[in-house]
Amino acid sequence: MSASILALLAAFSFALGTVLQQRGTLQTSAAEGDPRFLGEIIRKPVWLMGGSLQILGWVLQAAALDRGSLALVQSLCALSLVFALPLGARLTNQQVGRHSVIGACVTLLGIISFVALGQPQSGASQPTSTAWLTSGLIIGGLMLLLAKLAYQRHGAVAATLFATAAGLSYAFQAAVTKVFMSQLGYGVAALLSSWTTYALILSALAGFALQQSALKTGFLAPAMAASNASTLTMSVLLGVSLFGESISNGQGRMLPAVISLALAVFGVILLASPEPGQPDTATQ
User: Fold this and answer.
1) How far apart are CA 2 and CA 142, in angstroms?
2) Residue 240: partners with Cβ closer than 8 Å, 6 or more residues away
3) How far is residue 105's CA from residue 267's CA, in Å, rounded to a whole number?
């Protein structure tokens, strides 16, 4: 199965899993911003079902990363927010307004154009330890800053800040996954002695806590949009800086690729913006 198909299947699995997890978080009694709700959600069957779909999504994403470039796979995985809108309207009574519909269409157009016109290419370089350490420190610092700001806010703003931090963690996790997949054939002992195993666990836990905090606000569209925007943007940057990937297949495709990628990110930002007359807090 091709990397593109696997990435699209991962995107749908992520979308449905996120919506079900949000349904579970909204059933908890802890207030927004109270981290104790993380202990309550693991007792919600609907949340556990969503978690299982998230794990399936990661497996599909990992298989796609083993076959394709980080930029290509993460671009297609960003379509999870497009899939999530109708699912959220159906399962968690999310209000899908004009901004959301336009943002979803613009995102879809941008990603399809980026993949078709740019044709991102895999790199051949192996990231150095210094490059990994520098990337990890920068991303970790940004995550801590965003999380601190999020705890001082409420509603859609908090959802956006929490989710942006989660997206950065997911981007780093995807980059590590690409290396992790190349080590699977060396046995359990090699995996236990490799830093990638522990980096995967740490980034997954951090992304989990931040994304669940975003979903707890009750705002699905800003939560998923901000997460996907930061994941996509950081994944492309990591693909170029760490793996030596190219976002275009030839110089003549560079400008269309950059424009398409910018269009996709703009669509995601539009998705995260509140609808006219929408309150900044959700009724739970």
Assistant:
1) 34
2) 71, 246, 247
3) 7
